[in-house]
User: Fold this.
Amino acid sequence: MMGRVRIDKWLWAARFFKTRSLASHACELGRIQSNRQPAKPSREVHVGDLLHVKTERGDFQVEVLILSEMRGPAAVAQTLYRETEESRQARLKAIEERKSMPEFFDFHDSRPSKRNRRELDRLRGRT
Assistant:
């Protein structure tokens, strides 16, 4: 077991971020809190710390169980922390809300081709 681990290294090892520099950047942007305090990348993590992590996958509130600087398989990474029940419920609710919202796509990035224009004219009743 280790004595001192930087928060950016731990977040990378726990697979919250793909690279350590992304974890560092998230700390600098204020997306990481340790025990309700904004965390700089060099802040040390201790067992029992409560971290609030905002990523593109959602907001996580986790308790640190094991310290590690080494990135391993996802199954091992998930043993480094325990997500709080409130956090899990809120994240699942947010995912469901996103799924229920209609999505609008812009399929055409450019002008219609000659063929597409003919099809549109046919649909509109023009010959």
Q: What stands out?
A: The longest strand covers residues 58-64. Residues 6 and 42 are 5 Å apart (CA to CA).
